[in-house]
Design goal:
Layout lengths: L36 E7 L17 H8 L2 E7 L4 H10 L32 H7 L3 E7 L25 E5 L11 E3 L2 E3 L11 H19 L5 E6 L11 H6 L8 H15 L23 H34 L6 E7 L15 H4 L28 H7 L12 H4 E7 L11 E3 L3 E2 L3 H9 L6 E2 L2 E2 L10 H4 L9 E6 L2 E8 L2 E7 L12 E5 L15 H18 L9 H11 L7 E4 L19 E9 L5 E7 L4 E7 L2 E8 L2 E6 L7 E11 L5 E7 L2 E8 L11 E3 L20 E8 L5 H13 L2
Parallel strand pairs: 1-7, 1-8, 2-10, 2-11, 3-4, 3-7
Antiparallel strand pairs: 2-9, 4-5, 5-6, 8-9, 12-13, 14-15, 15-16, 16-17, 18-28, 19-24, 19-28, 20-21, 20-27, 21-22, 22-23, 24-25, 25-26
Helix pairs in contact: 4-7, 6-9, 14-15
């Protein structure tokens, strides 16, 4: 007996002939011809004071114009770290509840740190896509487990797996702005240009996003779009075109004390902060500018100039985006939101850094030693971050930085521009109501008339716990809709609550490794003390105890527990315990291959290892067999002029060893071995077909080589070695490259993990 195949449900009628049948056409969801577009522009590590309209004298005319033509929020809060903020922004829920208490680089085995957003929390892109919106993402993702971001996937947590139709950008926590590690949709690509041709990632991201929008609107003008533009700026490395760097020469020679005071006074004059708000004292470790040696001042000024140039350049790209939307006739009915993911970064340390990999190898730059490289700062041959003094200046008037739950880490800019939806008499006004990043998605849903689903693609959905602030758009006097908000990052905690018209904050700065029960809590009345200068903990212990109790209740509600202050240890655990890329694995690569991100590649950092390449070559064949890193630091194994060559690039100091024997024509096996001989020294040994043929002492063996990944058969991106121009692809037949690092110790892996935290 045969059984008919059951078709999908059909609402027409099927007879024996067409005449006896009735067709039925399903229609795709459509939000309506007047539905607004939504654009969210996210900046990275940009402090509260760093836009011109928030107090700085850095040139940001395009962001300032959006504030003048829209609404400027002066009491907006985020999480203190990038991945958690992004998860909360895109879901309308707390970061812990959706599985992203920290960066996506690791998982802990607990629900609050999955390394990705749980499928029980649909993203804005997923929800709006189901409503008929086109959805685009261009920029930094950092919401997928980094062990899963190679060309091997899996791809479920990449942007296309979480609701975006198109993606162009990078998946990790940072990238080089001149030589980015790019992904299009679900595959890795080489950048379309380099710095010599005027390439810069921020410009490329806006170009790509405008093209996506134009493609969509050109063919489907009736279909609205959601565009998410998370710039790599202003996260380190601070890199900008030379014209922008030149523009800021000498602009900060007065030093951070004078500049911070000036920005604070501008904030008061602009009304960005309330009258009576104090300028917080210098953070511990920030020296008075007058006490710094001349070389320290010169170094610090150049680093701040690079940051300012980077922000100025990013502002110009925002201007290009706005102009593009205007030219397409889309600007008036576009809800355009601009915000930052956390406060300014402290990851440059007390003096600033010329090269982050040097810093995370435990080497502190002596400003006297970098005087001859000042002109490199901000360009393609640097990887800089500014010192604490400039970071606190960027967070004016607050204390502390990114990664802290004090205001300097969580209080950032937010702008909203929507000509069709914001009344003319409200444009250019400010909103001082407390708003949190989890409130953004519910506000978008509210403005679009959309309800977040209870079930999405078979997954029961967590409740949307953010609060729509749509009511405050029309009336500056409307009470805040969010009256209770917790914060937590690596054990540092805070709670903000409004009670009887008074806004209170309890906050503690946890010291890693110490008992959470011993943390000292502080108490502030934010209504009159936004900069947390007057601690009321001793004067009002009952109020403090009440708020601490509320924090624990919110922690239970949002899945914050268990408290966990691990960071470096988590990177080690990821690689050793449950990652497909453990530290002791033997890797075998067969070209052609896409570039391999650092979290998924065979990193030889700080350990003994051996590379073996099986090749077949003609007499003139040459090229790179394997490379990792870039011109700032890295290592390359290549054949050139008939010799096997290794260039070990230790922060610009090159140890080059060349084989004493020629590489024979035909089939052969080439070996490069790095032996660690002490904590900081090693030796490179070469062999051809098993015969030793060269060695060199390594005066400094890097514990961390680079945040840039590896390539097989060529050197993608910026060349590691000055002896060739990238990509210098091997012109013979490269059958396989095998890397054996099975002797790696756990202590070496712990050292290797230290770089990851500052890259977020």
């Amino acid at each position: 007996m045969t059984h008919p195949i059951q078709p999908a449900p059909f609402e027409g009628r099927i007879g024996r002939t067409l005449a006896e049948s009735e067709p039925h056409f399903t229609s795709s969801p459509h939000p309506g011809s007047d539905a607004p577009n939504v654009v969210i522009v996210l900046l990275d590590d940009t402090g509260f004071a760093q836009f011109g309209c928030y107090g700085s004298d850095i040139d940001t005319p395009h962001v300032d114009a959006l504030a003048a033509g829209g609404l400027q929020f002066t009491n907006f809060h985020v999480t203190p770290l990038c991945s958690p903020t992004r998860a909360s922004l895109l879901t309308g829920r707390s970061q812990h509840a959706v599985g992203m208490r920290s960066v996506s680089n690791h998982r802990t085995g607990f629900p609050h740190q999955l390394g990705h957003i749980t499928n029980h929390a649909a993203t804005l892109a997923e929800v709006l896509g189901e409503q008929g919106y086109a959805t685009f993402c261009c920029g930094k993702w950092h919401l997928a487990p980094t062990e899963d971001i190679s060309a091997a996937g899996p791809f479920e947590q990449w942007p296309l797996g979480r609701g975006f139709d198109r993606f162009y950008g990078f998946l990790e926590g940072e990238t080089d702005q001149f030589h980015p590690e790019l992904v299009v949709d679900n595959h890795h690509i080489d950048p379309p240009g380099g710095p010599d041709g005027g390439y810069h990632l921020s410009e490329d991201l806006v170009d790509q996003l405008l093209r996506m929008i134009s493609d969509s609107k050109g063919v489907r003008p009736d279909r609205p779009f959601f565009a998410y533009l998370p710039f790599g700026a202003t996260h380190a490395p601070h890199q900008a075109p030379q014209a922008y760097l030149d523009k800021y020469r000498g602009r900060f020679d007065e030093g951070w004390d004078v500049v911070r005071q000036r920005w604070y006074e501008r904030q008061l004059a602009q009304g960005v902060i309330q009258e009576g708000t104090q300028l917080a004292p210098r953070n511990p470790g920030v020296k008075p500018w007058a006490e710094l040696p001349d070389s320290h001042r010169r170094f610090a000024c150049r680093l701040q100039e690079a940051f300012a140039a980077f922000l100025d350049h990013t502002d110009d790209q925002i201007g290009r985006l706005v102009d593009g939307l205007r030219q397409m006739g889309q600007l008036d009915n576009t809800i355009l939101i601009v915000l930052a993911d956390n406060g300014a970064s402290q990851e440059g340390g007390p003096f600033g850094i010329m090269h982050e990999m040097k810093y995370f190898n435990g080497i502190v730059d002596d400003p006297d030693d970098v005087m001859d490289r000042l002109d490199d700062i901000g360009g393609p041959n640097s990887h800089t971050n500014y010192p604490w003094g400039w970071a606190q200046c960027g967070n004016s008037p607050f204390k502390w930085y990114k990664q802290y739950t004090h205001e300097g880490g969580v209080h950032v800019p937010l702008l909203m521009h929507w000509p069709a939806g914001i009344a003319g008499d409200q444009r250019g006004t400010r909103r001082d109501q407390f708003v949190n990043v989890s409130d953004v998605a519910p506000t978008v849903y509210d403005l679009l008339g959309i309800a977040a689903p209870d079930v999405f693609r078979g997954y029961a959905q967590l409740p949307v716990t953010g609060n729509s602030f749509a009511p405050v758009l029309a009336d500056a006097g409307t009470p805040a809709t969010n009256a209770l908000q917790y914060f937590e990052q690596s054990g540092s905690r805070a709670l903000v609550v409004e009670q009887d018209g008074v806004c209170w904050k309890a906050v503690t700065r946890h010291i890693k490794g110490e008992s959470f029960d011993d943390d000292r809590w502080e108490l502030y009345e934010l209504s009159t003390d936004r900069s947390e200068c007057n601690d009321l903990a001793e004067a009002q212990p009952d109020k403090l105890d009440e708020l601490i109790g509320l924090w624990w209740a919110e922690a239970e509600r949002h899945g914050v527990l268990p408290l966990d202050d691990r960071m470096i240890e988590l990177f080690v655990a990821r690689r050793d315990d449950h990652s497909p890329h453990p530290t002791n694995r033997r890797y075998r690569y067969r070209p052609p291959m896409s570039p391999i991100p650092s979290a998924a590649s065979a990193s030889p950092s700080g350990r003994s290892w051996e590379l073996t390449a099986q090749v077949s070559r003609g007499a003139d064949d040459a090229g790179v067999l394997w490379a990792t890193g870039n011109a700032n630091s890295g290592m390359s194994v290549f054949v050139q002029n008939g010799r096997l060559v290794v260039d070990y690039n230790s922060f610009g100091e090159h140890t080059v060893v060349e084989s004493e024997l020629e590489v024979p024509a035909g089939d052969c096996v080439l070996t490069a071995r790095v032996q660690r001989t002490s904590r900081t020294e090693g030796v490179i040994e070469l062999a051809i077909d098993g015969e030793p043929c060269g060695s060199a002492e390594l005066p400094y063996m890097m514990h961390i080589i680079s945040s840039i990944g590896s390539s097989v058969g060529l050197d993608h991106g910026q060349a590691v070695s000055p002896r060739y121009e990238a990509p210098f692809a091997f012109s013979g037949a490269l059958h396989a490259v095998e890397i054996d690092r099975s002797g790696a110790s756990r202590s070496e892996a712990e050292t290797a993990a230290r770089t990851e935290m500052a890259r977020q």
